[in-house]
Amino acid sequence: MTNLYIGMVLVLFIAVLVGFWQLQKKHIKFSTRVFIALGSGVVFGAILQLIFGAGSEVTTGSIDWINIVGNGYVKFLQMLIMPLIFVSIVGAFTKIEGSKDLGKISFTVLATLLGTTAIAALIGILSVMVFNLDGAEFVQGTAETARIEELNISQEQVADLSIPEQIIAFIPVNFFADLSNSRSTSTIAVVIFSAFVGVAYLGVHRKDPEAGEFFAKIIESLYAIVMRIVTLVLRLTPYGIFALMTKALATSDFNALLSLGMFVIASYAALIAMFLIHMLILMGVKVNPIQYLKKTFTVLSFAFTSRSSAGALPLNIETQTKSLGVDQASANFSGTFGLSIGQNGCAGIYPAMLAAIVAPTVGIDIFSPAYILTILAVVTISSFGVAGVGGGATFAALIVLGALDLPVAIVGLVISVEPLIDMGRTLLNVNGSMIAGIISSKRIKSFDAKILNDDLTAIKSDI
């Protein structure tokens, strides 16, 4: 009977996938299809949970097959990270007229990303205090125990590295090895190498314009090809989202969810507070937040449901340039740097909250101003190199907790609510990178307010 039930579940799953294909054929708006997939996954996964239970053979057997779609989609997104980073950063250099704006753009983008990450970390710590989570203890089930064992192995890879040594680890030794994501710091290493290529291009173009133009055309062609591949992968988003949400709901331990409910609430309170600070920053640079939200709805909704900052990069850059009025160079720099540097959600709020929660358990006074400043400094520095696909937040947390000499078990104890919180974190990451692009474009006086204020320029993606 088990195989029969699994077959029935898979038939229903495939039927829903066919339904999404029909919606695509009818050219239903991309963001609409994504949210339908999100809701369908929640409902379908909850039904499996209620009928068969999280640990039943039917559920686990069905999820093994459903994972082909969900995990396959995630792997396709991971496949795109390195090519996207390389062509986007080098492409940004080819769009800079001379080098006079290069320093302003790079400094402004980095300062904004790191500055907002420090603020996000402070918000995370305050959220822990407001919700009285400092020193809180969470339920440890079978899944949490297994996760903690994995984390202990992962931490060994970074435990012996001081922060200066971690910074050195960002420097690429073998670019081709880093393209294969062979190290935990491969993402930032590719960013650094790509920046060197871009700077070299500017020098060659100045001395030999013909050679420079030839290289620029090659990069432009590569960029077009990579973006086409991205489009093909993005078309799989509704299917991937449906499979991922089905797995999340079908295999969730609701008792663990209930025990972690306050942590989820505190996390989203911090994420919302930081999002509102983003809106205040926009007001400070004379950008209407309401108009901004109208223009960024598609990319933010994609980031929320896909949980992938890297997957959102093409929509991120397109939204900045075609809907917000940001210049190409600022959009490419902010979008790409935002994949691996200064992610407000994954590298700011999350590790800071975990550090604030666990610190009192080892006798540290979290209310000490000196310790709060220590957390902020460590979180900000450690925000370099966080990959923009699922797992980056865990890496950031391991670095921060290790640097502060705090136990890492807390990371494993919240595994059951990770997917739920990660949606909000990813949205905040992407939003932060677009804020950086706007500020940079404003600083070099290339921001086109007419595009922002023209409602006809909103991205209505028909992917």
UniProtKB/TrEMBL annotation:
Organism: Carnobacterium alterfunditum
Highest taxon in the source lineage: Bacteria
Taxonomic lineage from the root: Bacteria, Bacillati, Bacillota, Bacilli, Lactobacillales
Family membership: Belongs to the dicarboxylate/amino acid:cation symporter (DAACS) (TC 2.A.23) family.
Record membrane topology: Multi-pass membrane protein
Stated name of the protein: L-cystine uptake protein TcyP
Chain segments annotated as transmembrane: 6-23, 35-56, 76-93, 105-131, 185-204, 225-245, 257-285, 370-389, 395-417
An annotated GO cellular component: plasma membrane
InterPro entries cross-referenced by the UniProt entry: Na-dicarboxylate_symporter, Na:dicarbo_symporter_sf
Keyword tags: Amino-acid transport, Membrane, Transmembrane, Transmembrane helix, Transport
Record carries keyword Flavoprotein: no
Subcellular localization, as worded in the UniProt entry: Membrane
A single GO molecular function term of this UniProt record: L-cystine transmembrane transporter activity
Pfam families, sorted: SDF
